[in-house]
Amino acid sequence: MNENDLLAAIFDLQRHDLEIWCARGWVRPAASGGATEYRAVDVARVQLICEMRRDLAVNDDGIAVALDLMDQLYEARVRLRALGQAIMRQPDDVRTQIETSVRKTLGG
To answer: What is the helix (H) or strand (E) element at residue 36, kind and residue range?
Structure first.
């Protein structure tokens, strides 16, 4: 999606705001052949930022914190998924040992 399409798709989005959000790194569109391309993740972030500002009256500092926490959570999920896949490639006895150790650590 290009910038004009994005601006048309989100009714309360202003070009100036989008430029600021991109400069702050809140939205990171891809550059493709000299053109800016907004992917689904970018559109979702823009919608979220608009909703936080409009519906929740979150200021810019709060938005920055929320986006940072979301990014950290996403990265943790990616790493946890990779760890789970690596564990599943292990022999049964190793997986059992890992499961036992995790249960003990979690107290269950």
So the answer is: strand 35-37
First to last CA, the chain: 48
For residues 85 and 107, give the distance between their C-alpha atoms in angstroms, rounded to a whole number: 23
Assign 18 to helix, strand or coil. Answer: helix
* Domains located in the chain, CATH noted: 3-106 (1.10.1660)
Report the alpha-carbon distance of residue 86 to residue 98 in Å, rounded: 12
pLDDT tens digits along 18-53: 999 999 999 999 988 888 999 999 999 999 999 999
Tokens of 103: 């249960």
The helix/strand count (H/E) of the chain reads as 5, 2
Report the run of H or E that residue 30 belongs to, with start and end: strand 30-32
CA–CA distances in Å: residue 64 to residues 3, 67, 93: 22, 5, 45
Size (the chain), residues: 108
